[in-house]
Design goal:
mainly beta; 2 domains; single chain; six-stranded antiparallel β-barrel; Elongation Factor Tu (Ef-tu), domain 3; 210 residues; nine-stranded antiparallel sheet; 19 strands; nucleotide-binding; elongated
Length: 210
């Protein structure tokens, strides 16, 4: 018995190039009678077809596999385009090979990283955020696509790139974040900051460091 893998697809077109790339965050998996994993998702842009080589990126070492089937509403297709809700059959992938937080992507379009700088807005108490400031060394959860990843705020800067010692609720700052595991991420990607099960901030990656 193999498994179903539930994905949420975010397919992004490259406007400056005559090709498309895609990124499909892994959400969950469950048993199925099919021979190989079928990750279902919704294409937001681009094209995926049988025979395409794809990478599973993040958390562990990047692994390459092949799309051997495309399914939509219990019908087998040769390909799928933006807007389609589909399942993708992947060759040679078992349950032990996947984990929440990984993504499925076209080879070379996205890579795993552990350290980045970001612009962050910290929610006020009235917005459901923290009641008190935090300092460098703060270790919240960073919600990236479909999973929470623990990370450490290693540096804090104000809008003039001057080092700050603390962040107050309602502040908008630049910070450097180091994650405990590599995650597929890129410049411009948005994320949420969580603590104790609630969202306390929101940010966007400004640059990749490592």
């Amino acid at each position: 018995m193999s498994l179903w893998i539930m994905w949420i697809a975010t397919f992004l077109s490259l406007s400056a190039k005559p090709i498309f790339r895609f990124c499909v965050p892994l959400k969950m998996c469950f048993p199925s009678r099919v021979v190989e994993p079928w990750p279902p998702g919704v294409l937001r842009g681009g094209l995926v077809k049988v025979g395409d080589t794809v990478e599973i990126v993040g958390v562990r070492e990047t692994r390459t596999t092949t799309v051997t089937g495309v399914e939509m509403f219990q019908k087998i297709l040769d390909d799928a385009m933006a807007g389609d809700s589909v399942g993708l059959l992947l060759r040679g992938i078992q349950k032990v090979d996947i984990q929440r937080g990984m993504v499925l992507a076209k080879p070379g379009t996205i890579t795993p990283h552990t350290k980045f700088s970001a612009i962050v807005y910290v929610l006020k108490k009235e917005e459901g955020g923290r009641h008190s400031p935090f300092f460098a060394g703060y270790r919240p959860q960073f919600y990236m696509r479909t999973t929470d990843v623990t990370g450490k705020v290693t540096a804090i800067m104000n809008d003039k790139d001057e080092e700050s010692k603390m962040v107050m609720p309602g502040d908008r700052v630049k910070m450097v974040v180091e994650l405990i595991v590599p995650v597929a991420c890129e410049q411009g990607m948005r994320f949420a900051i969580r603590e104790g099960g609630k969202t306390v901030g929101a940010g966007v990656i400004q640059s990749i460091i490592e």
